[in-house]
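Hypothesis: this fold can be encoded by more than one sequence.
Test: take the structure tokens below, design a sequence, compare later.
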């Protein structure tokens, strides 16, 4: 008779993942109607997702253009809303972030949302994670798209300042 322990162990792991609300490693595709939560965050099919490979400008993050301040962070959130809010989104999980959110490459049709946000100058490529979005960032800089038309600090620096670190 076959040893049933491997099957029992696999079932226990699957039930634990379901109970914790964490998708198992082989459940790497998430699809559904998106709700935008920030400039690089979505909820799709009940799963909190951080767009893989980018760091979006933070809500209420200012940019300076000459002597004028503008809210480029809120503009970044609006851009992702234009691209994805209430749209059918398909995400492929790549990792987890430090908050245990799924990090995923998400698409609306053929549009890679991370690439679109970086290309619009509303997010920065995370070069320590992946180089996929660096070309889009370089083009956005050259074209002075979004925040690149202004002076701004990186989103991670803005968060540190706002947290008092």
């Amino acid at each position: 008779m076959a040893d049933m322990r491997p099957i029992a162990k696999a079932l226990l792991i699957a039930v634990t993942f379901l109970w914790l609300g964490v998708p198992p490693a082989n459940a790497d595709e998430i699809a559904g109607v998106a709700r935008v939560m920030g400039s690089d965050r979505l909820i799709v099919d009940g799963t909190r997702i951080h767009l893989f490979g980018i760091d979006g400008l933070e809500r209420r993050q200012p940019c300076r253009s000459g002597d004028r301040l503008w809210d480029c962070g809120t503009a970044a959130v609006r851009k992702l809303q234009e691209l994805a809010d209430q749209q059918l989104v398909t995400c492929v999980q790549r990792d987890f972030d430090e908050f245990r959110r799924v990090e995923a490459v998400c698409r609306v049709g053929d549009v890679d949302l991370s690439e679109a946000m970086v290309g619009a100058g509303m997010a920065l490529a995370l070069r320590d994670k992946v180089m996929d979005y660096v070309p889009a960032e370089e083009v956005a800089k050259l074209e002075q798209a979004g925040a690149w038309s202004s002076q701004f600090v990186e989103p991670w620096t803005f968060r540190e300042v706002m947290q008092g670190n």
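The beta strands are 29-36, 41-44, 47-51, 54-56, 62-65, 68-71, 88-96, 102-108, 111-112, 123-125. The domain at 26-162 is CATH 2.40.50.90 (OB fold (Dihydrolipoamide Acetyltransferase, E2P)).
Hypothesis status: open.
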